[in-house]
Design a protein that fits this description.
About 40% of the residues lie in helices and about 20% in strands. It starts with a strand and ends with a helix.
Length: about 400
């Protein structure tokens, strides 16, 4: 069933209730800047349950956010009130969850919404553990196929076992959307699972090696890429495309963080090395935002999750073919972060990360394309430098250390 969002006189009033609350949420996309908010429309999902769609416009950010709300119940987080009725955050509210399960397509699950709990640490979306599944409430919504639904369904269809199976999904249309978009997806719950980033941080904290898990993760990542080729095929690529992408990324990063100018010679050298390559591998469907926080380890097996990509990027950009090595580069960068967050410094950090990185690359079977790996890791690190400067300035030294390594001779 595809739901239809419609405007009502209460939408602007609900926006007034939540507009002071929204910027404080981790998934709000316009941090630290003045944003224009407007009500797009809403969906009555059930009695007292309304999904408010809010447009956020701030500079280059132009997104439609999903804000599930429950009216008339004081259970959960109360945001404000409307006509004397409490207005609550609905994402993990039993009333919202019951209505969501009733409206969704797919086999679904039998679960008691009263036992639901929000997954801590989620940033761009809100995930809720619900019985034998985990519901991802997509915060930034867009028309068209959502890769977080489409890709796992394709991977399961070709028999790849390292992805949670999608069990239910909910779609809607809204003003300004030329086709339906996804509001959320319920996937099978991976039991007794450890978050990959937390696992790596814990091992770093006690000085224990991450080589074994990293090697296994490399093998699983390769299997994912092979299954994606089987599902989606490949397309051509060129050396010049890669070189220009790194140049453009550096220009963008430099405009946001002018102090990065000291890395210009090193970036130019990496770009020159890329241009000297005879060719690059074919492009294919990739994860697009792969890091240790997107993988789970359960009973010694890795599962890869969160195929949505960068939620604020246009859907066409998130679903177009790319170099598989970009996913590997994302995992390599995440290893650096795990070492830093785990408290390793100096020679200990260099030894721990070097061994883990080598294990990942060995598991993936990547004994070539060193120049390409370096270029795509540099591209990712430049993105991190801008992100940290804007959102977590105390973490900026992590990508800066990466830039030092990647741009040195």
């Amino acid at each position: 069933m595809i739901l239809t969002a419609r405007t009502t006189p209460d939408d602007d009033r609900l926006l007034e209730v939540v507009q002071g609350w929204l910027p404080a949420q981790r998934w709000f996309p316009a941090k630290g800047v003045r944003a224009e908010l407007s009500a797009v429309a809403g969906i009555d999902l059930g009695e007292g349950v309304r999904i408010l769609l809010v447009r956020v416009h701030a500079g280059s950010i132009d997104a439609v956010l999903q804000v599930p709300l429950v009216l008339g119940s004081s259970e959960g987080e109360v945001i404000g009130s409307l006509d004397g009725r409490p207005v609550c955050d609905g994402a993990a509210h039993p009333m919202f969850l019951r209505a969501w399960l009733a409206a969704a397509d797919g086999p679904g699950i039998t679960a008691d919404p009263a036992t639901a709990r929000v997954v801590s640490g989620e940033q761009s979306n809100t995930s809720v553990i619900l019985g034998g599944g985990i519901l991802k409430v997509l915060r930034a919504v867009a028309p068209g196929e959502n890769p977080d639904v489409d890709v796992p369904r394709h991977l399961v269809s070709v028999g790849w076992p390292n992805v949670p199976t999608p069990l239910a999904w909910l779609q809607a249309t809204w003003p300004g959307a030329d086709e339906p978009g996804y509001l959320g997806v319920l996937s099978a719950f991976v039991d007794d699972a450890e978050d990959g980033f937390e696992l790596a941080c814990d091992l770093a904290r006690i000085g224990s090696s991450f080589v074994g898990p990293a090697t296994d993760l490399g093998r699983v990542t390769l299997g994912m890429h092979e299954a994606m080729v089987e599902s989606y095929g490949v397309s051509s690529s060129s050396v010049e495309e890669v070189a220009r992408a790194v140049e453009n990324r550096f220009a963008w990063a430099l405009s946001a963080v002018p102090s990065l100018t000291r890395f210009a010679p090193g970036v130019a050298a990496v770009v020159a090395d890329v241009r000297a390559l005879p060719d690059v591998p074919a492009r294919q469907r990739v994860h697009g935002d792969l890091h240790l926080g997107q993988v789970l380890r359960s009973h010694g097996t890795w599962f890869i999750t969160d195929f949505e990509g960068e939620p604020l990027a246009p859907l066409a950009q998130r679903t177009r073919p790319d170099l598989a090595v970009r996913d590997v580069a994302g995992l390599l960068r995440s290893i650096d972060y795990a070492a830093a967050v785990g408290g390793l410094t100096g020679p200990s950090a260099r030894e721990w990360t070097s061994e883990a990185r080598d294990g990942l690359l060995a598991g993936y079977g990547l004994d070539e394309h060193a120049t390409l790996v370096r270029a795509l890791e540099l591209d990712k690190t430049l993105y991190e430098a801008v992100y940290e400067s804007r959102n977590r300035p105390t973490w900026l030294p992590i990508p800066l250390a990466g830039l030092e390594r990647l741009t040195s001779d």
